[in-house]
Amino acid sequence: MDQRPLRNTKSIQNANESAIYKLLVVGVVISIIGVFLRFAGDSMTLSIVSWAILFAGAFVCCKAVFKILGA
């Protein structure tokens, strides 16, 4: 195994911030709510709203991941 020490890069520092993980948890919770609503009822309006909530949660999760990567 390679025993070189890890460099303290900006992305590693960003990955250690707790605010990013809170944002990621919020995104996952929003996505779970969207998935639940998707199967909760059988109306067109509820289906459209649930898809919108699901995509909003996925967007929040992607935003958190890109913050970790420093992009």
Question: What is the strand tally?
Answer: 0
Secondary-structure content class: mainly alpha
Radius of gyration: 17 Å
Average pLDDT metric? 85
pLDDT < 50 stretches:
none
Structurally, how many domains make up the residues? 1
Q: What is the count of DSSP helices, taking H or I runs of 4+ residues? A: 3
- End-to-end CA span: 30 Å
Order of helices and strands: HHH
What oligomeric arrangement do these chains adopt?
single chain
Strand content: under 5%
Helical residue percent band: over 70%
Shape: rod-shaped
Sheet of most strands: none
What does it look like?
With 71 residues, the protein is mainly α. It has one domain (10-69). 77% of the residues lie in helices and 0% in strands. It contains three helices and no strands. The chain has helices at 10-15, 18-40, 44-69. Helix 2 (18-40) packs antiparallel against helix 3 (44-69). The chain starts with 9 loop residues before the first helix and ends with a helix.
Outline the secondary-structure elements:
Blueprint (H helix, E strand, L loop, with lengths): L9 H6 L2 H23 L3 H26 L2
Helix pairs in contact: 2-3
Would you summarize the structure shown here?
This protein is mainly alpha-helical and 71 residues long. It has helices spanning 10-15, 18-40, 44-69. The chain crosses the membrane at residues 20-40, 46-66.
Annotation keywords:
71 residues, mainly alpha, 3 helices, 77% helix, 0% strand, rod-shaped, transmembrane helix, membrane, transmembrane
